[in-house]
Predict the structure.
Amino acid sequence: MSGPVIGIDVGGTFTKLVVLDAAGTPVDRSRIPTDDSPARQLAADVARELARLEMLHGPARVGVACPGLVRDDTVVWMRGRLEELQGLDWAAALGRSARVPVINDAQAALAGEVALGAGRGCRDVVLLTIGTGVGGAVMCDGRVLRGHVGRAGHLGHMAVSAPGEKDIVNTPGSLEEAIGNCSIVRRTAGRCSDTAALVAAHRQGEAWASAVWESSVQLLAAGIVSIVNAVDPARVILGGGIAMHAGESLLAPLRRWMDEYEWRPLGEGVEIVLAELGEEAGAIGAAAHARESTA
């Protein structure tokens, strides 16, 4: 089936839409505020934006990316301000006669990076998004892993220093607690309210900041080598606000710890790169997933 595909990425603050043409090239994009009101209001807002984009580009297939656990084209578990999306029938809510494939937002971001970004050419690749929390997704043999109930790829909830404090899903000493912004006040003994401030202090040569940052990156490396040993990716993509802001301040110490920790039986280590698509990755991935699912 040819024609445009529109990907929709539902975020906590904004919902992003990207139009891919028949060749898979982004030709239009937009964003609308994610309304706090009931799910039907959000769906109505998205439906209006879809209608506007289809007026410009013609009838399109549609795919959706959402936070939470996704199964059978709906969110089966969600907590937080988007909880009302749990159980929503997106095809009915958007007034579509055709199927609307739904995919977890981190899994969609990985699909997007593989389609048009830092994962191009890879069939075995992992995405880690490092921000307030740590999200992730895994592609093996060209397929994004979803798992039994849709929780595959929640790599931030992997233990890297147990016993330790339990995170939001009860994992002790998790990767998310080791480097996510959610724990920055505790890790810096109240000196920093966000990771950008920690990285700035590290760059200015503050010894206490460098010690905290080095410990965080060391645990990130421990997590990545565990992932590498479990699923053997060719490439690990780092995205999210912390990774993109820190840049080489993250990559340089991470490479050093990877040199020490990674098992390299054939002499080559896993490639670690920064994400390329920014906030459009999820919408592009939702569109790519819809194109693949409805071909």
User: Anything to note?
Assistant: The longest strand covers residues 26-33. The CA atoms of residues 221 and 256 lie 9 Å apart. DSSP finds ten helices and twelve strands in the chain. The radius of gyration is 19 Å.
